[in-house]
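Give me structure tokens for this 203-residue protein.
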Amino acid sequence: MPKTQFPPSITSRPVYGELEARSGGGHLMIADAEGAEAILDLAKSVDQGFWAKAHIIYIPKTTGTKYSSQLEELGAGQYYAGPSYEAAQGRIRRALQDCHMGTQVYLSGTESLMGQAMAEATAAGIPHTAIQTEHRGSTARRMQCVHCKGITEDVTTDPFECSHCGLSLFVRDHYSRRLAAFQGVRVDAEDPGNIPEKVELFK
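Here you go.
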């Protein structure tokens, strides 16, 4: 699956690139679902010495073991596969705390995964210049309701119902890097009950 091409948007919306191998004292790779494909593509251009210094943290989600086995075969110094971001969060934080000067961080997969991992990496003091991102797979969004502050994962329609307060929210491109989430605003705030029909925009 090729990397996703997003249409031009507002300044706060993240822009993603393409992973490339860089020299460094270590290589921390965090991916979910089809994000594994970006790591496997990168693997075509590096030798085993690169992988000896690599730590892969992978969250398969709905992809089963297909990519898990391929990632394991790369021979990374450390490899972990977890059922969810929440399950892997402790390991991600420890890995970031253990990073030495010059460690390179590679994030690939969904915006939810990359946004959350990016926030953890910057909080741990990793410079932006040492972090790469590449979008692969689902374009479903992680949304925050600006009214109740609740987070709804995997939003695919516009509008959508907040999973916390039940309001119908408009999907905006405004993005909070601190929260790793797009912002949703009540669609019928000025005309209660006038809610547009849902349209599937993300898959």
